[in-house]
């Protein structure tokens, strides 16, 4: 009996440890699994955050222009319906645009060419007139801004001639050059020179006086002052003048070509008006706007390439 008393609890005692050792093992495995799940979810959330932010920024940047175009097309449709079809609808204009741009570089004669040739002819005249204006206007602006006497002498003349309408210069060009093409180039030249002269002169006048004092101490020549001090400081103003001049030149060439004739986007608009083709006139308006926008964008990129925060903004 004694042995029974002492040996009976032994199996229970020996079996107890496995039970106790197995009991804590189960919660340990559950804890590691539950810890891994939040980590995976957090990493997935963190990976999705930049994508969501990028999509939100793109949507915020694209929504206002799209809304503006929707409103423009809506107003266009209302005007078209109120004029009983005198102004073509956006759908009719789109169909005609597909036809026009399906062959933009055809030639059926000197006065019957595709819209591509007309745009290229206008850009050629703009490049020539603007190039001549830059060759004259930028150095003139440097000289006017550098010397106070010349500034006081030229300011009244610039103030008198700058507000003159571009079309007022066209008869002078026809009289002097005896030709429509040089007269159009002359009109572009005389109208696009003023923004470059004025902005360059203002930039030179706003160069800090400390820079000029250092140049005087170093006994630099005028050429050294212009190339090493004035040009880098004036560059933002100069590029602003160039942007304004290109916009003015593109505006002027359309009006000049309407009066001079020949090949050009302005003449194409006038010729379509003579044919009472309002749809092609609206297409030309959009083409003129797109080309002007591309010129502006190219000059903004050129200005941004030269750093200067005020140019980038």
UniProtKB/TrEMBL annotation:
<feature type="transmembrane region" description="Helical">
    <location>
        <begin position="281"/>
        <end position="300"/>
    </location>
</feature>
<dbReference type="InterPro" id="IPR005889">
    <property type="entry name" value="NtrB"/>
</dbReference>
<feature type="transmembrane region" description="Helical">
    <location>
        <begin position="126"/>
        <end position="145"/>
    </location>
</feature>
<dbReference type="GO" id="GO:0005886">
    <property type="term" value="C:plasma membrane"/>
</dbReference>
<keyword id="KW-0406">Ion transport</keyword>
<dbReference type="GO" id="GO:0015112">
    <property type="term" value="F:nitrate transmembrane transporter activity"/>
</dbReference>
<feature type="transmembrane region" description="Helical">
    <location>
        <begin position="183"/>
        <end position="204"/>
    </location>
</feature>
<keyword id="KW-1003">Cell membrane</keyword>
<keyword id="KW-0472">Membrane</keyword>
<keyword id="KW-0812">Transmembrane</keyword>
<dbReference type="InterPro" id="IPR035906">
    <property type="entry name" value="MetI-like_sf"/>
</dbReference>
<feature type="compositionally biased region" description="Low complexity">
    <location>
        <begin position="8"/>
        <end position="37"/>
    </location>
</feature>
<keyword id="KW-1133">Transmembrane helix</keyword>
<dbReference type="GO" id="GO:0006811">
    <property type="term" value="P:monoatomic ion transport"/>
</dbReference>
<protein>
    <submittedName>
        <fullName>Nitrate ABC transporter permease</fullName>
    </submittedName>
</protein>
<dbReference type="Pfam" id="PF00528">
    <property type="entry name" value="BPD_transp_1"/>
</dbReference>
<keyword id="KW-0813">Transport</keyword>
<feature type="transmembrane region" description="Helical">
    <location>
        <begin position="248"/>
        <end position="269"/>
    </location>
</feature>
<feature type="transmembrane region" description="Helical">
    <location>
        <begin position="157"/>
        <end position="177"/>
    </location>
</feature>
<feature type="region of interest" description="Disordered">
    <location>
        <begin position="1"/>
        <end position="37"/>
    </location>
</feature>
<feature type="transmembrane region" description="Helical">
    <location>
        <begin position="225"/>
        <end position="242"/>
    </location>
</feature>
<keyword id="KW-0997">Cell inner membrane</keyword>
<comment type="similarity">
    <text>Belongs to the binding-protein-dependent transport system permease family.</text>
</comment>
<feature type="domain" description="ABC transmembrane type-1">
    <location>
        <begin position="119"/>
        <end position="299"/>
    </location>
</feature>
<dbReference type="InterPro" id="IPR000515">
    <property type="entry name" value="MetI-like"/>
</dbReference>
<feature type="transmembrane region" description="Helical">
    <location>
        <begin position="58"/>
        <end position="79"/>
    </location>
</feature>
<dbReference type="GO" id="GO:0042918">
    <property type="term" value="P:alkanesulfonate transmembrane transport"/>
</dbReference>
